[in-house]
Amino acid sequence: MIFESSIESRKDKKGQIEVICGSMFSGKTEELIRRLNRAKIARQKVEIFKPSIDKRYHEEDVVSHNDTSIRSSPVNFAEDILLWSGGCDVVGIDEVQFFDDQIVSVAQKLALQGKRVILAGLDMDFEGQPFEPMPKLMAIAEYVTKVHAICMKCGDLAAFSFRLSDSKQKVMLGEKESYEARCRKCFYEDKK
Ligand SMILES: [Zn+2]
Suppose 90 and one of 39, 104, 133, 155 were both cysteines; which one would form an S-S bond, judging by CB atoms 3.0 to 4.6 Å apart? Predict the structure, then answer.
């Protein structure tokens, strides 16, 4: 990606916000981990947070679905991140869609402190609607990267998370059994 060399070679302490978004199975967490690992190699101090609601995997790791992992701290509230991120250069936040709107001002504050803030999350819910607070974060970010899955029905690029069960609950954890990545056409064809 074109912008990355300028991000990672910057020597000033100007903060910025990056958003990595996409559907389930699109590799958001892998992309977050890739950026954080590169910052670590450059001896930048990196911290990773995720909402404590996401307990699918190991408590203290950000675990992507291909098992690349980095130790992370689960937090109950977005503002906890302000308390725990002092002294670090890069703040990674995963599963951002599970935070409330507070995460927007938290990201702003961190960036104004000179930190590079990288947020990864679902941009749409299972009904294909924008998943707050992601739209707000995408609006205020310097860089937005949308990553794609492969449609499990037709093999095209997929941007939607199709829920196989009838549940209307917005937050439903547990993945592979309950969801399929779908392209727009296959998502709306089968949507209930
Ligand atoms: Zn499709």
Answer: 39
